[in-house]
């Protein structure tokens, strides 16, 4: 049995980046960029008006001003602003030569058909200067960034309509167990619906990877072996759920070894998730996850997700916040590192989720994050500051 820290180091040490591909900008959301994005333009590309108003000389604002033209956005000014003159200008339009100020419409008064005057005592310049946001040659998005909606706007602004991104890992999902039936089946006595595969399917999709559901394998060596061979052939990462513990029908580790999978660990000193298996076969990664749904969910978050992101060129950094415990928490055994689902209360404290064990599936529904208790520690006291790993 190895420590959690050793387990994640082993996994990430074996990880490699997938090749890259070019895609349309409209399909780039949540993909991971494979190149730095460098601006080919200044933004703004010219001095522009920050609002609707009148472009003039600042030194002239106490005088009545003659309106010499109207400048809508997208039109180049035709006239130079001289003393005693102004141009009516719209938000985003180019500032005419000679002007260094824009008077807001609501701070002016029309005194005849083509003259205005400023009716306040002072004003801001109300001009967005050329390149004050972005200069040509600036790096705006770094290689390895997960593209969010705000990044898509940058791609469009800089002309990256066909960005290069890392390919998505294909993740095969397979559950084992004679007791399992598909969700559309009403379970008979001693049967349960297969929730793990669909939970994992959604978790994989949430990373931007590609989920491939491979079905349910019965607790039979030949059946598991045949489905597993097909799963390995057609996927980059394989997630098996169940069959990895110490029971008579926990056949997965043995079958993996028969298929020449090199098992790098088979137990981790964590709770939940102790009977977790990880192995490699050439360039394929195989996880044997515990059959209990809370365990498989947490192991995915802790170990599988970082691998998938690293394969897509991103060194995943989890968000952690420090918050006080809202109650005392005690556990009976401290021989493993514990990961505990928690919620953030309205009072700004951390409360462990009501949790009856690793099969308590609905305990996760309101979970905000996980806290951990190291080996050798049994208790957290009310008011203790803990790190919350957001999920």
Radius of gyration: 30 Å
CATH architecture of the largest domain: 3-Layer(aba) Sandwich
In terms of quaternary structure, the protein is single chain
Q: Beta-strand level of the residues, as a percent range?
A: 25-35%
Please tally the β strands and state the result. Answer: 28
Q: What is the 3D shape?
A: elongated
Structure description:
The structure is a single chain. With 391 residues, the chain is α+β, with helices and mostly antiparallel strands. The chain has four domains: 4-16 and 168-311, Molybdenum Cofactor Biosythetic Enzyme, Chain A; 20-43 and 132-166, Molybdopterin biosynthesis moea protein, domain 2, CATH 3.90.105; 48-128, Molybdopterin biosynthesis moea protein, domain 3 (Molybdopterin biosynthesis moeA protein, domain 3); 320-390, Beta-clip, CATH 2.40.340. The protein is 18% helix and 30% strand. It has six helices and 28 strands. The chain has helices spanning 4-14, 149-157, 196-206, 221-233, 252-258, 293-311, and strands at 20-22, 37-38, 48-49, 53-56, 65-71, 85-89, 101-104, 108-112, 115-118, 127-128, 139-141, 164-166, 170-176, 180-181, 192-193, 210-217, 237-241, 262-265, 270-271, 277-281, 284-289, 320-324, 329-330, 337-344, 350-352, 369-373, 379-380, 385-390. The strands form eight sheets. A six-stranded mixed sheet has the order 7-4-6-5-9-8, with no helix packed on it. The protein is elongated. The model has no long low-confidence stretch (mean pLDDT 93).
